[in-house]
What does this fold into?
Amino acid sequence: MPAAPIVEIDPLHPQPRVIERAVSALSSGGVIAYPTDTFYGIGCDLFDKRAIERIYQLKQLPRTHELAFICQDLAEISRYAIVDNAAYRVLRRKVPGPFTFILPATRLVPELVLRRQKTVGIRIPDSPIALELVRRLGHPLISTSAARPDGDVLIDARDIKEELGHGLDLILDAGFRPAEPSSVIDLSGPEPVVVRVGKGDVSDLME
It folds into this structure.
């Protein structure tokens, strides 16, 4: 398979024709690299099992590795996760932003992305590109870091093409992305638990 083409995209005002090209690839079972508010993500349609398997193979991930996904808003999160009042209050404060939230899954979530405790990792990034992709696709978008199998994160589209391009259908280039992971907040229990401190302020949840 030839390396995926790189297409430049405006991070703040993504061009509709570029979004359409990416959504066309996703709708056809494709896997793409795209920028988020943290680093570049590798993604596909949440409901495309074959494309998800391609991501596991591309990144050489064990099947026990859990993949997060992006929703476009709180209403969409509530379709895929059980959100109680306490979790909702945290979500309202923190989205959109550089956070991954662990929440109890609903039955709509495919088995392939369920965590061990029937939970899911969900993001609403502060990224016009990622959110527009989800809106136009009509489904949540798998979100895992664009990284080498050794875990080294790739922050430039050209590096992504060189390292992972053989397994991708399209690479959206929005310039360098800092190698900052999202902060991970577990909202599946009675109290919020900060699992990983990354980009974004979580000090209000660690008191």
